[in-house]
Structure to design on (837 residues):
């Protein structure tokens, strides 16, 4: 019995060891710690940033990101014409653009890919990225059923034409975004939802998907048939899904990983130390951290109360004591650096004025102010707890400056989202990362019927301003209208209290790695990155 | 026959467990498609629910799931939408099993000799110092042991890799971090039972016959002293196979423990239910095997 047990155990252990070292794979030329495991690599389905980074290596859009600036440069389309009214784009596809399996990439593939995103049966969460296209929203929401009515067409095998509802100055940027990338029709239709798991997946981008093991790694291999393969610098790239900042740092410090590029992977406790290192880099990018007020609840239905709470916050204390990554404090919602837009200044830190406003609202010295709650999401898995620390700091500031009591309400992520959506909160931690480099991504979210509004605030004037701005062909007029809208949001109505703008982080040794650059949209095309020889 | 009866009795139990898991995870607020960014229109959300049949009555959903499971299909993952639950389990389970088995081997391989050694040196400094270490091993949790091991052996001394799961070298630290607690427990158990056995009369007889100390220990004392350890081995194996979440997270091991925790945080309904069924079945079967093993070890135990 004993002998048998021992031999059984020994066998098990051997199997385990063989299993562990059974996968003899060549080492990668580049190893990147990519943050959370991508939920999907399907352009129509993916939504997260880790997903997007991999997706853009596999599938290309009509344009692609410039590695230095993040601006749109020619991708599958080598050139395009824009009609004088700025509503029609005619793209000319490259003659040398082929799938990794050899077939040419045609305009019909583009039409298919975009229609697929809009197909209600696919239920693409990011289909809104295409709502600028004529009849796209109507088709996606089932108001029309004929896909031919959507403003996308293929007048020739390599000519792709898009008709927009209104001039969209960032439309070319949008064409680089993952959702709008071109996917292989035959393969997708043959294999349904699991098409990415059936090798070989025909791809339009610089890399093919060699392996995708959940929670283990994504391995990319250079696609030799990519039209610009000459400029794909690393042959094999591993992207590891890591969620623990300490593990990420350990892997980086011992040379097992070349790049860390997810802001969730930076141990904030060590930030002061890390920021002194030459292999640690911070940069500004378009993300905003703010507080939502639930304007449907008393006393937050009174704009003076919202303004008082906003002006009582010393934002420098948050960025200097808690986030410590060199973040810029915010008085407005649209971050600096957004293309073609200068956000207006909102409410500055002014505790005296805040107290006066509270008196005017009927709560002198905070007396009679009902106890209210501040909702935030608990960081699961022992993260940096930044949100919690900020909540505690806000609690102290509001108590000290205004004499009011706030109850901190921490909820697990999904519960927090549900609570926020159902407007079951008084004040709430919030953040927003721009999808594309334009003010619209920060401002249209607070339109009355937008699902991301989540404050209960409905303003016909705001809606009209944003809508008008989006109808403008002239950039100056557009900016002016957006600025008026933003002033409503952050000053006149103070629906939100902006706190600070995010800083992007990445870690790599500039003596060993090249081809990765900081840019405001935090996009770093993998094909341009390589180890220095 | 008895075994078969017990095995059959597991089926209704598993059904109850799956039903509870199915209902409870849906009662939790928030849903799989709640994200910071809402879809551009409510229609998309409706389409999503329709696609994954979340708009149907609960019982119908359960029936649909049950029917799928009987065909070996645990459904799609709602979080990792290119994968289905069966794929994810098949990919992660062998890794978790390997880690559990290795830690099991480590716990016994270290715990038994340490226990015997302490019993032999009972009352001496060696016993006390070793006793202190084993208590420490039992008291310090894995999420402390893991990072400590990494700091010392991987970052300072560079003997082992800091994380990941690729070569036999990668396996060592997580095995130790996971197995240490159990090694401590086994050694305590072993020490007590060995001490007891060494005071038995038949040992004295063996001594009187002039057998060497090591001979007595290995030939006569070890086997009866192992009984409590063996009866503990069953639950221990179950614990190891199901409880490696923390270690998997620290060492970035592609096992299944991470999914067990995250799937409920993500409201990935099919994934939660699939993993609950899997773990429940594993625990129930292991318990059954332990019961069977008792009859082999101790002839006085009768099953029926």
């Amino acid at each position: 019995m004993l002998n048998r047990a021992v031999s059984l155990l020994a066998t098990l252990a051997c199997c385990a060891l063989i299993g562990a070292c059974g996968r003899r794979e060549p080492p990668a030329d580049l190893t990147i710690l990519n943050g959370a495991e991508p939920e999907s690599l399907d352009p129509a389905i993916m939504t997260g940033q880790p997903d997007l980074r991999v997706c853009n290596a596999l599938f290309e859009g009509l344009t692609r990101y410039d590695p230095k600036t993040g601006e749109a440069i020619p991708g599958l389309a080598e050139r395009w014409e824009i009609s004088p009214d700025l509503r029609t784009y005619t793209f000319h596809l490259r003659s040398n653009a082929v799938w990794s399996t050899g077939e040419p990439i045609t305009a019909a593939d583009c039409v298919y890919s975009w229609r697929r995103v809009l197909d209600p049966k696919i239920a693409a969460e990011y289909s809104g990225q295409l709502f600028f296209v004529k009849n796209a929203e109507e088709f996606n929401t089932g108001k029309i059923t004929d896909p031919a009515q959507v403003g996308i067409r293929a007048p020739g095998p390599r000519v792709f034409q898009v008709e927009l509802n209104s001039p969209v100055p960032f439309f070319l940027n949008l064409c680089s975004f993952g959702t709008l990338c071109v996917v292989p029709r035959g393969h997708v239709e043959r294999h349904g939802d699991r098409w990415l798991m059936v090798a070989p997946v025909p791809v339009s981008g610089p890399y093919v998907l060699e392996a995708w093991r959940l929670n283990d790694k994504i391995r990319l291999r250079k696609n030799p048939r990519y039209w610009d393969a000459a400029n794909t610098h690393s042959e094999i790239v591993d992207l590891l899904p890591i969620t623990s900042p300490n593990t990420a740092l350990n892997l980086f410090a011992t040379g097992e990983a070349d790049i860390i590029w997810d802001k969730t992977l930076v141990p904030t406790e060590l930030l002061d130390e890390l920021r002194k290192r030459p292999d640690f880099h911070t940069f500004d990018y378009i993300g905003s951290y703010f507080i939502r007020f639930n304007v449907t609840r008393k006393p937050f239905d009174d704009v003076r109360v919202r303004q008082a709470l906003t002006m009582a916050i010393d934002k420098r204390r948050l960025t200097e004591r808690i986030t410590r990554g060199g973040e810029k404090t915010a008085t407005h919602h649209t971050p600096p650096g957004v293309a073609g837009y200068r956000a207006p200044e909102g409410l500055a830190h002014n505790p005296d004025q805040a107290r006066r406003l509270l008196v005017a609202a009927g709560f002198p010295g905070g007396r009679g102010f009902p106890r209210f709650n501040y909702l935030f999401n608990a960081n699961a898995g022992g993260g940096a707890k930044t949100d919690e620390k900020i909540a505690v700091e806000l609690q102290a500031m509001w108590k000290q400056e205004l004499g009011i009591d706030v109850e901190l309400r921490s909820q697990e992520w999904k519960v927090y989202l549900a609570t926020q959506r159902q407007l079951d909160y008084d004040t709430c931690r919030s953040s927003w990362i721009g999808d594309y480099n334009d003010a619209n991504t920060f401002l249209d979210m607070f339109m009355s019927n937008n699902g991301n509004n989540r404050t209960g605030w409905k303003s016909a004037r705001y809606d009209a301003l944003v809508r008008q701005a989006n109808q403008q062909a002239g950039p100056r007029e557009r900016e002016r209208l957006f600025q008026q809208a933003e002033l409503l949001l952050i000053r006149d109505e103070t629906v939100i209290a902006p706190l600070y703008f995010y800083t992007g982080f990445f870690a790599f040794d500039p003596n060993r790695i090249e081809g990765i650059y900081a840019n405001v949209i935090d996009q770093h095309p993998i094909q341009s990155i390589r180890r220095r020889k | 026959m008895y075994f078969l009866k017990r095995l059959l009795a597991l089926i209704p139990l598993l059904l109850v467990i799956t039903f509870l898991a199915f209902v409870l995870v849906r009662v939790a607020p928030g849903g799989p498609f709640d994200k910071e960014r809402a879809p551009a229109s409510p229609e998309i959300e409706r389409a999503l629910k329709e696609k994954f049949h979340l708009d149907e009555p609960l019982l119908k959903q359960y029936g649909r799931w049950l029917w799928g499971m009987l065909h070996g299909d645990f459904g799609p993952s709602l979080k990792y939408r290119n994968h289905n639950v069966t794929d994810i389990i098949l990919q992660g389970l062998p890794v978790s099993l390997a880690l559990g088995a290795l830690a099991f081997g480590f716990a016994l391989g270290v715990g038994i000799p340490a226990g015997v050694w302490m019993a032999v040196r009972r009352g001496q400094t060696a016993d006390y110092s070793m006793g202190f270490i084993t208590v420490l091993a039992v008291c310090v949790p894995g999420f402390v042991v893991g990072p400590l091991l990494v700091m010392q052996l991987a970052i300072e001394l560079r003997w082992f890799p800091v994380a990941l799961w690729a070569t036999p070298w990668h396996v060592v630290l997580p095995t130790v971090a996971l197995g240490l607690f159990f090694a401590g427990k086994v050694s305590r158990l072993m020490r007590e039972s060995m001490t007891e056995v060494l005071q038995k009369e038949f040992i004295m007889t063996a001594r009187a016959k002039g057998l060497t100390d090591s001979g007595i220990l290995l030939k006569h004392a070890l086997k009866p002293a192992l009984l409590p350890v063996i009866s503990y081995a069953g639950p221990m194996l179950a614990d190891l196979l199901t409880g490696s979440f923390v270690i998997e997270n620290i060492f970035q091991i592609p096992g299944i423990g991470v999914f067990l925790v995250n799937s409920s945080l993500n409201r990935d309904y099919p994934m939660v239910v699939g993993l609950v069924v899997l773990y429940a079945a594993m625990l129930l079967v292991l318990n059954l095997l332990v019961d069977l093993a008792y009859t082999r070890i101790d002839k006085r135990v009768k099953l029926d």
Remarks:
- Chain B touches chain A through 72 residues (CB under 8 Å).
- Chain B has a mean pLDDT of 89.
- DSSP finds twelve helices and no strands in chain B.
